[in-house]
Design goal:
The chain is an alpha/beta fold and 349 residues long. The protein contains 13 helices and 13 strands. The structure holds iron/sulfur cluster.
Length: 349
Amino acid sequence: MKPVTVPFFISHQGCPHTCVFCDQRTISGANGNLPTAAEIISRIDLWRSTAADRPLEVAFFGGTFTALPEKIQFELLAPLQPLLESGDIKSVRISTRPDYIDAARVAWLAAKGIRTIELGVQSLDDAVLAASGRGHSAAESLAAISCIKEGGITVGVQLMPGLPGDTPASSLHSLQMAIAAGADFFRIYPTIVLRGTELARHYAAGKFTPLTLDRGVSLCKLLLQRAMQSGIPVIRIGLQADHGLNAENILAGCWHPALGQLVRSQLYADLVCRSVLPGQRVTVFCRPERLSDVVGIKRGNLQKQIDRGVEMVVATDTTLKNEELAIKTEDKTVTYSIISDLHYSIHEV
Ligand code: SF4
């Protein structure tokens, strides 16, 4: 059963760096205070009351957990220990930077109940990392992924396509290197220009050109498909529109409140376009969970087919896999897959 996540945002706490794109206060919406033991317990109680039978997972998002003073890391994790022992919470997840990971830290975190570490890798291209003010190398990120895996902890990799100096090819290379290093899942956050950041100054001075929404969707589509081909889940595409992030803070870049859906919808739209000829009348079957992706935001995929002269009806079929569409024409039904029947080239992005 999928756990319910009890989130704590520890906004920029513990991070001595200033990446050019980062305004953690904007992203997390928190005021920089860390939760007390009493606040941690009371929030867990609150979430438990709504979680029904689902297990709870506590997550410390936003900051660089392992760069916090050890005393503070201990104080944040201490109230969770009895709850882990009693089974009231199942696991703990943190996020951090690659250069604040080593075998001793991983062993200590594993002993404290941390089961997942999300690493802000962003890119595995040293030139992109340097231009983005990250302050660590690609080699450090790869070493951190291995170290976490060896410590028996699940490792999630956050990537940011569209950083200064990045290209679609280097984004794809970063994803492939992270897969080869053992990433268990991805979050893909295309770069956006936030008010008040160094990147906003570069953008205003004409020194940085962000990804547009269209190009970002095309690139994310390619990255998502490559991750799916390797069997690695992408659990999120695009920053969430809550926690203080809103249209006023975003000056430019690839952002949409439902970016993940936009990307998935495009994969299904491409599959229909490549499998159905103009003038045909078809019924497209998909898994019920994928219905809104296949129909598209504001029925955009249906309209796309109308514009091509295709009469398309969408229906559900629980025997299909998530990635499959069964397309029924007058004389036959053929099943296609967004994983194996779409062939994107990096030059299309
Ligand atoms: S490492 Fe993370 S928290 Fe620190 S400045 Fe960079 S993006 Fe912000």
